[in-house]
UniProtKB/TrEMBL annotation:
This is Peptidoglycan binding-like domain-containing protein. Keywords: Signal. Residues 42-150 are annotated as: Disordered. InterPro entries: LD-transpeptidase_YkuD-like, Peptidoglycan-bd-like, PGBD-like_sf, PGBDSf. Residues 153-208, 223-279, 293-348 form the Peptidoglycan binding-like domain. Residues 1-26 form the signal peptide.
Length: 369
């Protein structure tokens, strides 16, 4: 009996120990699973943190890119505004406000560029010396050895350079061969300046090429004739200056080019004899719209006196209202209606203005002599 109890107790103890062992094992498994879950959660959190960090970095990068774009846009806008302001300033320099057409005083003021800023004398001298060197190279060519088609001569290089400068050719890298294109350029030059058209660069042709290519009436040079040149450009509305000087600057060159282009001349910016003559003839022509000349002041005063206009402070500019007043006058007195103050019109204006006693509009009461 005692043995049975012992066996039973022993079995109980064994079962107890076995159950405890199983519990421990299961607890360990649960702990291990929990540990794995915790690790997974931590890993997930770490991954999420990495993703978040990457997203933050991307957002920051995008923000930096956006800021850079905005800065570039602002910079571009600033440059565009600057460019617009420069264009406006240039436009203001080149476009004369016609205050006489608004019955106000013409208060022209020269811009900085209009003052024709002087170049450093040494630079001007260097440019002149280079031109003289080229001229000397060409001038050594005598009538006995004129340059013509088929010839190879170092002087042909200088000739081609000069013809390109004067707008009769376009030799990018001139060589010493006198070919068909050179011959045609010489013919065009000879025809343009009234020389005998042969295509041969004889002494007269070479001399003419040199004189024009090295004219003192071009950008960077000084000459007394530049003053009258500027005055004529002012009269015709191509230039706006108060006190023209002897310096031929960039604005004068631009004005000359515009005049040459409008008149179908060679556009070089050099005031060659053809350009100078054309300018002088037009500047001396009868007053008409777009011109600015001192005799326009007296004409406006007379037209106002006769009741065809109302210029309170007449100036030199012959604008749209002046043209209309002249047309009205011409029509009223049976003259050819052109709007141009030709000699007949001016003579008629002056003769009637001398006999006027008083006026009321166009009902003019006259005291005839």
């Amino acid at each position: 009996m005692r043995n049975k109890k012992s066996i039973t107790l022993s079995c109980l103890i064994t079962f107890f120990l076995l159950g405890a062992s199983l519990h421990t094992v299961k607890a360990n498994e649960i702990t291990e699973v929990n540990t794995q879950n915790i690790n997974q959660v931590e890993n997930t959190k770490e991954k999420e943190q990495v993703v978040d960090e990457e997203k933050k970095q991307e957002i920051q990068d995008e923000e930096r890119v956006q800021e850079q774009k905005e800065l570039e846009q602002e910079s571009a806008k600033t440059e565009e505004n600057d460019a617009e302001r420069n264009e406006v300033e240039k436009g203001n320099e080149n476009t004369e406000v016609r205050e006489d057409e608004k019955n106000s005083v013409d208060n022209e003021t020269p811009s900085n560029d209009e003052q024709e800023i002087e170049l450093d004398d040494s630079k001007v001298e260097d440019k002149e010396s280079d031109d003289k060197k080229t001229a000397r190279m060409l001038s050594t060519n005598k009538a006995s050895d004129s340059l013509e088609k088929g010839v190879k001569n170092p002087q042909v290089i200088s000739l081609k350079e000069q013809l390109t400068k004067l707008g009769f050719a376009n030799f990018k890298t001139p060589n010493k061969y006198y070919g068909k294109r050179t011959e045609q350029a010489v013919k065009d030059f000879q025809q343009y300046y009234g020389l005998k058209v042969t295509g041969v660069a004889d002494s007269k042709t070479v001399e003419k090429v040199n004189s024009i290519a090295n004219s003192p009436l071009q950008k960077g040079k000084r000459h007394q004739d530049t003053i009258s040149l500027k005055e004529n450009l002012i009269v015709l509305g191509y230039l706006k200056l108060n006190n023209p000087n002897t310096y031929f600057g960039s604005q004068t060159e631009k004005a000359v080019k515009e005049f040459q282009s409008d008149r179908g001349l060679k556009v070089t910016g050099i005031a060659d004899p053809v350009t100078v003559e054309k300018l002088q003839n037009e500047a001396d022509a009868p007053l008409q719209k777009g011109m600015s000349r001192s005799d326009a002041v007296e004409l406006k005063e007379q037209l106002t006196k006769l009741g065809f206009a109302n210029f309170k402070t007449p100036n030199k500019y012959y604008g749209k209202r002046t043209e209309q007043a002249v047309k009205d006058f011409q029509q009223y007195y049976g003259l050819k209606v052109t709007g141009v103050a030709d000699s007949k019109t001016v003579e008629k204006v002056n003769s009637i203005a001398r006999t006027v006693l008083y006026k009321k509009g166009k009902d003019i009461k006259m005291l005839l002599h």
